[in-house]
């Protein structure tokens, strides 16, 4: 784990040295087979969320705005949410590995629980045992847990994706969202978030009408 975190530090340092080459505006996230997604695959609006599980503002969004977003946009089939890890510290990295330890369909519930209990595990010098308790509640046994938190391949994949987000998409803080390619930064109040969703929806409507006319 220490080696992975040193690698992350190296990525961050390199990103600082390359700060003079900002991401191109055309570079926006695209779905990959490894993504954890909440919502219907054919939803017209795609929301990418870059978050750190130790980020207080991310936890605020998860608890304040996300329930409304889920009920009004995701559960209704209008939008889907794509989770992207952007761990700000070693605790967030380990928690991200735990969340990915279970089946993909349980991932959103793990993330929600980790945010709710952020002040319990996130402030620990070593969050392993606190995370183990959360994992048990989610049906992950001790052997599987130990294997997951020591999985170098998963650690490297998360760190590599974070570095790509920084360099390719210009993500430098959490939470950062892309709604059909439009970038939003910060835990916006829900009404402001809805404005961005409605704007994305309005831009889709003319495209749909044109396709139908043809």
Features:
alpha+beta; 12% strand; disordered C terminus; 214 residues; five-stranded mixed sheet; 55% helix; disordered N terminus; Glutaredoxin; 10 helices
Give a brief outline of the structure.
The chain is an alpha+beta fold. It has helices at residues 2-17, 56-64, 66-74, 90-99, 107-116, 118-121, 128-137, 142-149, 152-169, 190-213, and strands spanning 36-38, 45-51, 79-85, 176-179, 182-185.
The tally of beta strands, per DSSP, is 5
State the distance separating the first and last CA atoms: 55 Å
**Percent of residues in helices:** 55-70%
CA radius of gyration is 18 Å
Instruction: Tally the helices.
Output: 10
Q: How many separate domains make up the residues? A: 1
What pattern of helices and strands is seen along the backbone? HEEHHEHHHHHHEEH
CATH topology: Glutaredoxin
**Sequence of strands across the biggest β-sheet:** 1-3-2-4-5
The major β-sheet equals: 5 strands, mixed
Average predicted confidence as pLDDT: 87
Structural class: alpha+beta
């Amino acid at each position: 784990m220490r080696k992975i975190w040193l690698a992350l530090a190296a990525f961050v340092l390199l990103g600082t040295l390359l700060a003079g080459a900002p991401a191109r505006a055309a570079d926006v996230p695209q779905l990959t087979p490894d993504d954890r997604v909440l919502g219907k695959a054919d939803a017209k609006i795609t929301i990418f969320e870059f978050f750190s599980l130790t980020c207080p503002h991310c936890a605020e969004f998860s608890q304040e705005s996300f329930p409304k977003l889920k009920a009004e946009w995701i559960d209704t089939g209008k939008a889907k949410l794509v989770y992207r890890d952007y761990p700000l510290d070693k605790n967030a990295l380990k928690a991200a590995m735990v969340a990915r330890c279970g089946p993909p369909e349980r991932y959103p519930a793990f993330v929600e629980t980790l945010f709710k209990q952020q002040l319990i595990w996130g402030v620990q010098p070593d969050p392993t045992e606190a995370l183990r308790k959360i994992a048990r509640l989610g049906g992950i046994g001790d052997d599987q847990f130990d294997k997951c938190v020591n999985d170098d391949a998963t650690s490297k994949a998360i760190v590599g994706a974070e570095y790509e987000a920084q360099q390719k998409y210009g993500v430098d803080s959490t939470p950062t969202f892309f709604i059909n390619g439009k970038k939003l930064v910060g835990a916006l109040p829900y009404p402001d978030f809805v404005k961005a969703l409605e704007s994305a929806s309005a831009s889709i409507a003319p495209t749909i009408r044109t396709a139908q006319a043809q």
